[in-house]
């Protein structure tokens, strides 16, 4: 019971760190890619992961955290899966319209719910499902502008959804079942994620942009933004593992859609992106859905905690009841003895 407030504070801190760092890196990358003309998203992500690993390695050398051994096969497969999911999401964006890509991101939540229900026997109440439905409707209204379908793009989107869902579920499952922290898991898996993206990134980016990352002419401003983006990515990657470990993959996706709403708002405020009444209505519906999700999750967690505590109190009652009954029976015997003695005295 005493650990509950500190645990809640840790969750709030993780959520805040995730939102702040993700919104910051989106704005930084948007300026880098749209304004400065650096379109190599997948290669940039591999650099992000390399810098993340180097930062954690330095932190480990200074004993900031303790490393824990994890089965190498698990770490390699996990790292490769996450790396592939990032590449597939970028390919999905490249081969689909922006509207269909947003639909792909929206589909991650119901697909995650389905997988957790089937394979992990996790139950989601109707209230939770309703709040998620409202959230998805709101984000859809705010962000989806066009839907253009093509076979290759649809296949890439399905693969991106599957790998992203499984990767995020594993992020949560590995931390809890192997009792490792988010830092320990990220430290061991980041090199494999970085390696697969470093090898495949230039090829993926060339397919999408028709440009070669190694032939690009890097100016001082571009290099400064790349370094800044890599530094922010350390916080983004760390908070991602932290949020999924402390909450759940579904909650992380809900948080992701909050970031989408904030990015739309900051894009309008800072970058003067077009903003319509439809965007405003969609964001308001999405925020209302997030509020309901947060309320229902908190209410159900409190109820679950109360149900877990009540059997313990019942056991304690059962243990103390015989003692109380014994004392009461003893008192009753003494009282009846006194009554019989008094009646005998009166007869005499």
From TrEMBL:
It is a multi-pass membrane protein. It comes from the Eukaryota. The keyword Magnesium does not apply. The chain crosses the membrane at residues 38-62, 74-93, 132-149, 155-173, 216-238, 277-296. Its main location: membrane. It is found in: Membrane. Residues 21-294 form the Sugar phosphate transporter domain. Pfam families: TPT (PF03151). Keywords: Membrane, Transmembrane, Transmembrane helix. Signal peptide: none annotated. InterPro entries: Sugar_P_trans_dom, TPT_transporter. GO terms for cellular component: membrane. This is Sugar phosphate transporter domain-containing protein.
């Amino acid at each position: 019971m005493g650990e509950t407030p500190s645990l809640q504070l840790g969750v709030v801190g993780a959520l805040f760190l995730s939102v702040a760092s993700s919104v910051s890196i989106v704005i930084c990358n948007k300026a880098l890619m749209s304004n400065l003309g650096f379109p190599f998203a997948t290669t940039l992500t591999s650099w992000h992961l390399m810098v993340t690993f180097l930062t954690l390695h330095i932190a480990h050398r200074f004993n900031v955290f303790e490393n824990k051994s994890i089965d190498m096969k698990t770490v390699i497969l996990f790292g490769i899966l996450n790396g592939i999911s990032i590449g597939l999401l970028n390919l999905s964006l490249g081969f689909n319209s922006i509207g269909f890509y947003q639909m792909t991101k929206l589909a991650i939540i119901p697909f995650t719910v389905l997988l957790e229900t089937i394979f992990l026997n996790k139950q989601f109440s109707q209230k939770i499902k309703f709040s998620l439905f409202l959230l998805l409707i709101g984000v859809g209204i705010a962000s989806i502008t066009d839907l253009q379908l093509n076979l290759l793009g649809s296949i890439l989107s399905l693969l991106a959804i599957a790998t992203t869902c499984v990767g995020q579920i594993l992020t949560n499952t590995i931390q809890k079942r192997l009792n490792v922290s988010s830092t320990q898991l990220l430290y061991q898996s980041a090199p494999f994620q970085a390696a697969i993206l470093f090898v495949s990134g230039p090829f993926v980016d060339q397919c999408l942009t028709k440009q070669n990352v190694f032939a690009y002419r890097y100016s001082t401003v571009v290099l400064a933004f790349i370094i800044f983006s890599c530094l922010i990515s350390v916080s983004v990657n760390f908070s991602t593992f932290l949020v999924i470990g402390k909450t759940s993959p579904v909650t992380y996706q809900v948080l992701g859609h909050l970031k989408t709403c904030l990015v739309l708002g900051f894009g309008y405020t800072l970058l003067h992106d077009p903003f319509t009444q439809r965007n405003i209505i969609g964001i308001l519906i999405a925020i209302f859905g997030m509020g309901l999700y947060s309320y229902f999750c908190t209410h159900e967690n409190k109820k679950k905690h109360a149900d877990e505590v009540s059997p313990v109190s019942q056991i304690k009652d059962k243990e103390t009841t015989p003692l109380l009954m014994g004392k009461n029976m003893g008192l009753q015997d003494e009282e009846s003895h006194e009554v019989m003695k008094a009646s005998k005295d009166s007869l005499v």
